[in-house]
Design goal:
Helix content is 15%, strand content 36%. The protein is an alpha+beta fold. It has an eight-stranded mixed β-sheet, with helices on both faces. It starts with a strand and ends in a 6-residue tail after the last helix.
């Protein structure tokens, strides 16, 4: 099963075939579900026997999902329809009799894009039955900020349910015996002391990835019959690289590490002993879920992506140790002479910050290179090499892309994340500032030639740096940003972000947030660089009100300067219709948005000739 796109199709098309690069046939084409391409395929899973596709669609960029079931042989949908799913992936039962999914109670009519989406639960839908009969497997109505996700164990016997509090990277694990009709979930990890995820199980012994007593992650074995921490067994210890994931493939474990935010793959036995490495092509990331495989096969599949490669598909045979490339995304640019490298720049407190630099080979430090500086720095999310057509276009025209690894992210484990949250959030903005200063001090560029860009939490990063150090930048692009830090928790899923930002209702938290909230730190006494603020009218994750208010406040400050006879820089607000936080955006809308952003960058920081 493979998603494909000819390049200009609004949505990716799902094919089914007999081999990774066979011609195959179309199983599901989301482009047929709406005239403007705004209905997206937002989740999918195939039953273990390969006979049923369980898929979810979302409309207009919303996070709400509706699940349906399609027969692979006939291509026809069954009558099953499950609505109001959110914030969890589907997990089919091993015998294909049903599936687990995450949902909340339906919102009131007209409030679909504003609902808080609290009181999440995991539910079991049996195929052929109405949704009203779905069984709630796991819920905590007394804890409305708890969120759940579920997967079925490799042997099909258990449902493994992960619980988080908002977006905090700390989890509890419960296990439900699916073979016992009246069973209830029992605890495997019963505290929020660490982040722990399921890898596989050998009967009642569960192999788990955890950062408990290992902030960069380790692999442990926990017996469901005796799960107390004193009896955990360590299979693979913590290393200097972050353990980002693990998958059982055949009778082996394939581990995905991040070394300085770049992917590494290694193979271990089920008892943890090292077997070898799987070579990867330089500075790259693994796409999607990382490694794909199953206990019944020695074949491992994964896809890599980098700043100069839009995607390559690989197959590794554990039996022979051979790796081969079986597919690649075509690129209408010659990147063979491009340079993509990683440097480490000093923050003002002496910490080394990784910075990825990508440019044409003929672009050299001349103090005047247009630079697009991108960052995120939050929620334990790792910012690793990725490909963007608009970034590639910027580089192809003579600019340089700089992607900063900032504290607050997850690239180096728990301490790295915690160094950029709550009262320490300012550290993230200071790291980004230090990257901009290094780009100037190293001779690459000048402040007037640096454009900063970020999305979501990265939009907050741009807004905070813009209002604190406008003299360091020549332009700013804040995409779907969190910009009102005093009211973010009052809209949709915003309450979940208190794990990173703190609580505005708390006096100490309020003071911290007010000090850097972009909306509340715009001053008519300062001249800001040209600013482009982008959002979507159906964004029910970071509501567009953040962008609307920030744009209005920036414009008011610009008008005040103009009334004093001072020339303000332009402030632009771009609102995409029938679009949300970015996922599922039709290709036509993505091209229109990228074109506007590139035009803005060209008009502000400029671009060298091709």
């Amino acid at each position: 099963f493979q998603l494909r796109n000819t390049g200009l199709q609004n949505q990716d098309v799902l094919y089914v075939m007999d081999g990774p690069m066979a011609e195959g046939r179309v199983l599901l084409d989301p482009n047929e579900l709406s005239e403007d391409g705004t209905v997206a395929l937002s989740d999918l899973a195939v039953t273990d026997d390969g006979e049923l596709l369980i898929y979810a669609t979302s409309e207009g960029g919303s996070d709400w999902m509706t699940y349906r079931v399609r027969e692979v042989s006939s291509g026809k949908d069954r009558a099953d329809r499950v609505e109001w799913a959110k914030y969890s992936a589907v997990a089919p039962l091993k015998d294909a009799s049903g599936f687990l999914y995450g949902a909340v109670d339906p919102p009131e009519a007209g409030a679909e894009l504003l609902a808080a989406a609290e009181a999440h639960s995991i539910r079991l839908h049996r195929l052929g039955t109405p949704q009203s009969e779905d069984r709630i497997i796991m819920a905590a109505p007394e804890q409305p900020e708890w969120m759940f996700s579920a997967r079925v164990s490799d042997d099909g016997r258990y449902a493994v349910i992960e619980t988080t509090r908002g977006t905090a990277p700390e989890t509890r694990l419960h296990v439900l015996d699916l073979a016992a009709p009246d069973a209830t979930p029992v605890p495997l990890i019963d505290t929020f002391a660490a982040k722990t995820t399921y890898v596989t199980n050998l009967d009642s012994v569960f192999l788990l990835l955890t950062d408990a007593e290992a902030e960069r992650g380790r692999l442990i074995a926990v017996d469901l019959e005796d799960p107390v921490p004193e009896h955990w067994r360590e299979l693979i210890p913590e290393s200097m690289a972050l353990l980002a994931g693990a998958r059982r493939c055949g009778d082996a474990l394939v581990l995905h590490h991040l070394a300085d935010a770049s992917a590494r793959l290694s193979v271990h036995g089920l008892d943890g002993h090292p077997v070898g490495e799987i070579a990867l092509p330089g500075l790259c990331s693994l796409m999607g879920e990382g490694v794909h495989g199953r206990p019944s096969s020695s074949l491992v599949h994964f896809a890599t992506v980098s700043f100069i490669d839009p995607g390559s598909l690989w197959e590794h045979d554990l039996a022979t140790g051979a790796t081969r490339q079986i597919g690649a995304t075509p690129l209408p640019l010659d990147t063979s002479a491009w340079v993509s490298e990683q440097v480490f720049i000093p923050a003002d407190d002496g910490t080394a910050l990784p910075l990825f630099l990508t440019r044409r080979g003929d672009v050299v430090p001349d103090g005047d290179t247009p630079v697009l500086l991108y960052g995120y720095g939050g929620f334990d999310i790792s910012l690793t090499p990725m490909f963007s057509p608009s970034w590639a276009t910027f580089v192809d025209r003579g600019g340089m892309l700089a992607v900063a690894v900032l504290r607050g992210g997850g690239e180096y484990g728990r301490s790295w994340h915690r160094a950029g949250i709550h009262a320490r959030k300012q550290r993230v903005f200071d790291d980004f500032r230090d990257c901009a200063r290094w780009l100037v001090d190293s001779g690459w560029t000048a402040a007037k030639r640096i454009a900063i860009m970020g999305a979501s939490n990265g939009g907050l990063l741009v807004g905070a740096c813009l209002t604190q150090h406008p003299e360091l930048f020549g332009a700013a692009v804040a995409d779907v940003g969190v910009l009102d830090m005093l009211r973010f928790h009052r809209f949709t899923i915003g309450w979940a972000w208190k794990s990173d930002y703190g609580d505005p209702e708390d006096p100490e938290g309020f003071a911290v947030l007010a000090a850097y909230s972009p909306l509340h730190n715009v001053s008519a006494q300062r001249r800001y660089p040209p600013t482009l603020i982008t959002t979507g009218d159906h964004d029910d994750r970071v509501v567009p009100g953040h962008s609307f208010k920030f744009a209005a406040t920036m414009l008011a400050a610009a008008h005040a300067r103009a009334e004093r006879g001072q020339t303000p820089a332009p402030v632009l607000l771009r609102t995409a219709t029938s679009a949300g936080h970015g996922h599922g955006m039709p290709t036509s809308k993505a091209i229109a948005k990228a074109t506007d952003v590139l035009a803005f960058l060209t008009a502000t920081v400029g671009a060298a000739s091709a």
